[in-house]
Specification:
Elements lengths: L1 E3 L2 E3 L2 E2 L9 E4 L3 E4 L2 E3 L2 E2 L8 E4 L4 E4 L2 E3 L2 E4 L3 E2 L3 E4 L6 E6 L2 E3 L2 E4 L3 E3 L3 E4 L4 E7 L2 E3 L2 E3 L3 E3 L3 E4 L4 E4 L2 E3 L2 E2 L6 E4 L4 E4 L2 E3 L2 E2 L6 E4 L2 E5 L2 E3 L5 E4 L2 E5 L2 E3 L25 E5 L2 E3 L14 H12 L19 E7 L9 E5 L15 E8 L2 E2 L11 E9 L9 E3 L6 E2 L3 E5 L1 E3 L5 E7 L5 E3 L5 E5 L4 E11 L2 E12 L26 H9 L23 H12 L22 H10 L22 H13 L3 H4 L19 H9 L6 E3 L2 E3 L8 H15 L3
Parallel strand pairs: 1-5, 2-6, 3-7, 4-8, 5-9, 6-10, 7-11, 8-13, 9-14, 10-15, 11-16, 12-17, 13-18, 14-19, 15-20, 16-21, 17-22, 18-23, 19-24, 20-25, 21-26, 23-27, 24-28, 25-29, 26-30, 27-31, 28-32, 29-33, 31-34, 32-35, 35-37, 36-38, 39-43, 45-52
Antiparallel strand pairs: 39-40, 41-42, 41-43, 44-47, 46-50, 48-51, 49-50, 51-52, 53-54
Helix pairs in contact: 2-8, 3-4, 5-7
Length: 693
């Protein structure tokens, strides 16, 4: 199993489960790197509050943090954070490097408990153990009859090495406040520091039972009892030990006669080149954290130096609180003082906004991203950069007159259309040339053209829009037909135009009419007639093309700048889509930043088709625009309040859709894709039935 850059928090195994509140491995290897284990736990009959490896292979843990994990219950409890038990693969190894273990504990009521942070039980296949460059602080074994190893407990573990590590304030209610060995040969502790650890019965720093331990270049300070052993071979060399109470005596290099506070009398031990110190580790009350890895390295360097009596406080066993500076680069604005002395993990308040001529302050960024002061803990020196928005004089904008074209009318029928503008302000409108059809009037305030035409013909006129002396003009035309006018294509042709729409086709009349009116052209083929492809889904851009051919003036020119992010002037149907947008028939999808998108190749849904047609008719007819949908839907799959409910209800009321019969009811199926043949039917009904009615 491999865990990399992962957080395990508040996981738990219940009574009788084999262990590993966060991870349990049986039979395989385990690799953990750059991960965090917090407040995980295992209950009675389990091992390893965070990780349990049993009968498995190699275990590798690097650059990880274990805090507040626990192993509790009323049976034998092992390994508050990690338990490695009886590897099942020959010559397996355990390596724990560059890691931090704090406030983990193992507790059992009336039974055994070993290893507040780590328990390793090596028999039969474990080859070696390495614990390097790691910190153990505040770990413990608690409230049991026989508990040992406040930080680490080794049981039948051969060839273990602890190097470059620091053990501070770990506790055991029996032996080994920091480290405990039992039936474990060939163990080494080198370049490591033990300070402020405690145990009740012995070996507050290190305790060993029937084991061999070599301690080299290490420091033992302010431990209640230093090194303890029973039936054990212990060698201490080139190390710093607590100063003895009797100033008249010193440690012997060959005997233990003057070291009752360090070793028990039944320990077989050898002392070589040991030094003394009077330093007593302080109790921190200011919230400062131990700087684990760097502190251990600094101690190791000091221990390898010439002066064996260098005070521990001078070589960095305890660090002052780590603080940082938050600096501000105003990028041309007024200066902002840095915030100094920020504790690790603290947040800072935003300073007073800087100022800059001709600009508006837009916020602070870190590495190009907006910086949130309230939710950004400081863990290093940082520089925040000011961002600015340039303040510019309002640009003179020539009014844009809309729509692109005006609808046709019929003699004697109510006509309605509206002229609108876009620009920096409200435009004053006027007719600057030409004339409206007889019977129609123009309201210069609202821009509405209304009335009943009395003559046929095409009438051209020019609209002028003036905003603060900046004006624009646009020519319009309105065609008035006589009542009952029957245009071309009133009857289907006897010879099909499209090869895939024969006379017998369900929608032959509608498809033939679409081609006759030049609303649809189909696909040219290498030989023979073109194809209409009636069952294909209709794309949104094709719908735009249909409506454009029906309504747009022939001289329409599309803008050079696209209104949609996903449409370029060179795209097929760009002109048609741009006209749809200009007329207000197509709005597209609003995007978080920048222009909307049209999504030309998406299939058109039946509800979107209804929206297009409703907007088209509402732009010409005020009665359509003021339509109110019924409070009770005529179709069972449409309800008031649903998107496009109004548009679909209008289509139903005007007979442009009949819905789909399902049992005894009608449904509209708004989300279904619309086919090209169905679109032909909708447009045919709109022009030949609805508009003539």
């Amino acid at each position: 199993m491999i865990a990399n850059n992962t957080v395990f928090e508040t996981n738990h195994t219940g009574d009788g489960v084999s262990g590993g509140g966060a991870i349990r491995v049986t039979g395989g290897a385990l690799e953990v790197d750059h991960s965090t284990f917090t407040n995980n736990s295992a209950a009675a009959g389990s091992d390893g509050g965070a990780i349990s490896s049993e009968g498995s292979g190699n275990v590798r843990i690097n650059d990880s943090v274990f805090d507040g994990n626990k192993r509790v219950g009323n049976q034998n409890q092992y390994g508050g954070a990690i338990s490695v038990k009886q590897p099942g693969v020959a010559d397996s190894t355990v390596e724990i490097t560059n890691s931090i273990f704090t406030n983990n504990f193992s507790s059992a009521s009336g039974n055994l408990s070993t290893g507040g942070a780590i328990r390793i039980f090596g028999t039969p296949n474990l080859k070696s153990v390495l614990i390097d460059n790691s910190l153990f602080r505040g770990n413990s074994t608690k409230i049991a009859v026989a508990q040992s190893g406040g930080a680490i407990g080794f049981m039948t573990t051969p060839n273990s090495t602890i190097s470059n590590s620091t053990f501070i304030d770990n506790t055991s209610t029996r032996y080994g406040g920091a480290v405990y060995y039992e039936n474990s040969p060939d163990n080494t502790i080198i370049n490591s520091t033990f300070a402020g650890n405690s145990s009740v019965l012995g070996g507050s720093g290190v305790s060993a039972y029937s084991s061999a331990v070599a301690i080299d270049s290490s420091t033992f300070l302010s431990n209640a009892l230093g090194v303890h052993g029973t039936g054990t071979q212990i060698r201490v060399k080139d190390s710093v030990l607590p100063k003895l109470a009797n100033p008249a005596v010193t440690y012997s290099e060959t005997t233990l006669a003057y070291a009752p506070s360090l070793f028990t009398v039944n320990t077989s031990a050898t002392l070589e080149k040991v030094s003394e110190t009077n330093f007593v580790a302080p109790i921190r009350t200011d919230g400062a954290a131990y700087k684990a890895i760097e502190g251990a390295r600094t101690l190791s360097q000091a221990q390898n130096g010439v002066d064996r009596k260098t005070p521990l406080s001078d070589v960095g066993a305890y660090e002052t609180p780590q603080t940082y500076t938050v600096s501000f680069e105003s990028n041309g604005g007024s200066g902002v003082d840095p915030i100094e002395g920020v504790l690790h993990g603290a947040v800072v308040s935003a300073p007073v906004d800087p100022s800059r001529d001709g600009h508006t302050f837009a916020g602070w960024t870190l590495d190009g991203a907006s910086y949130d002061f309230a939710s950004s803990p400081v863990t290093a020196d940082i520089v925040l950069h000011a961002t600015w928005t340039e303040v510019t004089e309002p640009e003179v904008v020539v009014p844009q007159i809309m729509p692109g074209s005006l609808p046709k009318g019929t003699v004697g029928d109510v006509y309605a259309a509206t002229i609108t503008t876009k620009g920096n302000g409200v435009a004053t409108l006027s007719i600057d040339g030409g004339a409206l059809p007889d019977g129609l009037t123009f309201d210069a305030v609202s821009g509405k053209i209304a009335g009943k035409a009395t003559k046929t013909g095409t009438f051209r006129f020019t609209i002028r829009a003036d905003i603060g002396g900046v004006f624009a003009t646009k020519e319009f035309s309105i065609t008035i037909d006589k009542k009952g006018f029957v245009g071309p294509c009133s009857a289907p042709r006897p010879v099909p135009v499209f090869s895939d729409a024969p006379l017998t086709h369900k929608f032959y009349k509608e498809i033939d009419w679409m081609e006759c009116m030049k609303y649809a052209t189909g696909w040219r083929m290498p030989a023979g007639k073109p194809e209409y492809r009636p069952t294909w889904n209709l794309e949104r851009q094709a719908m735009a093309a249909f409506i454009f051919r029906m309504e747009a003036p022939k001289n329409y020119r599309a803008p050079k700048v696209s209104p949609f992010r996903d449409m370029k002037p060179s795209d097929k149907f760009y002109k048609e889509v741009a006209w749809m947008h200009e007329m207000g028939y197509a709005t597209g999808w609003a995007e978080p930043t920048g222009k909307p998108t049209f999504r030309p190749h998406l299939s058109l849904s039946r509800e979107a088709m209804a929206a297009f047609i409703y907007r088209l008719e509402a732009s010409k007819n005020s009665a359509v625009k003021s339509y109110r949908a019924p409070s009770v839907s005529p179709m069972t799959d449409m309800k008031p309040g649903m998107k496009f409910y109004k548009e679909i209800s209008w289509m139903w009321d005007e007979g442009l859709t009949t819905g789909n019969r399902v049992g005894g009811a009608k449904e509209y199926w708004p989300k279904d894709d619309l086919s090209r043949q169905a679109m032909a039917a909708f447009i045919y009904r709109l022009v030949t039935d609805y508009r003539k009615g």
